[in-house]
Amino acid sequence: MPPDRFDTSKPFITLGVLLLIWFLIPTVAKRVSRIGFYELQAPVEVSASYLRELQDYWAWRTRSKTDIYNAYRDLGNMAAHYAHAAAENGELRREVEKLETLLRLPSFTDYRSEPARVVSRDLNGWWQRLIIRKGTNQGVVKGSPVIFAGGVVGRISEVHFNTAVVDLISSSTVRLAASFEGDDRPVSFQGGINPPLSRPQATAEFVPLDLYANPAEPKPLITSGLGGVFPRGLKLGTVTNLQPSPDGLFKTGRVLLDPRLNELTEVSILIPLDPL
């Protein structure tokens, strides 16, 4: 006996009704439901993050005393190095403040650094995101820059009570103003499509024609400070080639990003002390 036509189309009718109901729901209700679902899901991911740290702790308990002593010695060397770097940084800050006073230049907006642990990562080809273990309860605001030792990680795109979502600079959703080290002219930085397990890359556009780069003489790309989001001078990546754009007015180049972006476990959030 042939199947009833209504029975075969019943799943499609049900799907159509559900989609119609979803489109008729007000946008505010959709947003509230999405946020509520995220807040219910977030504790599970955060708990998994703490569980991984507990596993690492017990793994270290199985190491020999020699390994622990060597790790302690390496940490001592790093602490001494960072203490010296912090002293130099303080002297440079005082020198900058003195020059700003003499030249009557405006000071950059001050930030405080908020360390955050990475909970999970979504590194598909179209967008690349991290979820970190800090949120509105720790003063994190949407749009805050996120950095690490190698430069810019990305910016906060969503903020919840105790977690936040970071769009990586390798994501196609990120576009910002940049400049080459030693050159104040602004260029455009655009994330792109990055396949999994590959080195993250981006694109530099609207580059002046008199600038050159090649693998033997790469040019570092930094934040320009324009736009009011990222402070000037943060490292974005390295440009190893520049080619004329189709219109012939500018150049375009590939930006190689820090490979550690794919394996970050700890980042820092730059939160303005005096947000506008």
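The record above closes out task 2.4. Task 2.5 opens with a second protein, given below.
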Amino acid sequence: MASIAVMGAGSIGCYVGGRLAAAGADVVFIGREPLGSELAAHGLTLSDYRDYRRRLAPSEIVYATTAQPAADAALVLVTVKSAATAAAARELAGVLQPDAVVVSLQNGLGNAAVLRGTLTTQRVLAGMVPFNVVHGSDGAFHQGSEGELEVEDDARLAPFLDLFAAAGLPLRRHADLLPVQWAKLLLNLNNPVNALSDLPLKAQLSQRAYRRCLALAQREGLDLLATAGIAPARLTRVPANWIPCVLALPDALFRLVAAGMLAIDPLARSSMWEDLQARRATEVDWINGEIVRLAERLGRAAPVNARLVALVHAAEQGGRRRWSGAELLAALRPG
């Protein structure tokens, strides 16, 4: 069986790579030494909101701290943080086979292009992970919300399709992934709201004031996308353009409507919350910052998303990290 390398073994990388390994794939995880030590001590425990559970013993895990083992990989899943994409591409360029397939499973819109700029002989495809993964203790990784892996369609993915399906992570292929990426980014505009609430996603979204913060950010993004002539894909049972209206509903009515929109379990938290807890740099510049950059290209402003970027950067530097819904809403409203 063709080998798979996961470049950037963090929450997403360990979960997706772990599910593939549990299905019988030959997987090598490439990441930082502390996580390698954690997996060597405890193994890898995978779970999801649908009661899936599987543990890989330490002896079943191949973990490296350099890209060298990717030399044998037919497929490379890049799951590093967006700020590390260029460095990861340089590492991989020195070892990958020319016919390797590389899939970016990262936040933001431009990571595949960054990879293509360096990996000029490999086939690089954009991909997207629509669900949330929480890294618990002792090598535990939990998928806390629903969704399937999305990827650019390419014939060179054919040898891997059955394996992803067997792992419970079927690949949804698209001739044009950009509308899907924008739709996911609109949902991810909640990441700073969740991080600054210091609450689990389900608890945060149960409060109307926090939802109204997200609705402001989404409306701003949707207005700019309409100006740019970009129609986001439909990822949930509610079309993207309707979601801000649903978010603004009173709590009792929202619970009725949202029950059929997107499954989220009580353990789910945003990766941005995890980054703040670990005192790491977040990806806010590749999420809400994308809306700000789109506004700049259109000669417009995106004050709500720009404010969220600023608040998260302040939190990264030791500033306030816990806001009530009312306080955050007041900080985001114009004037």
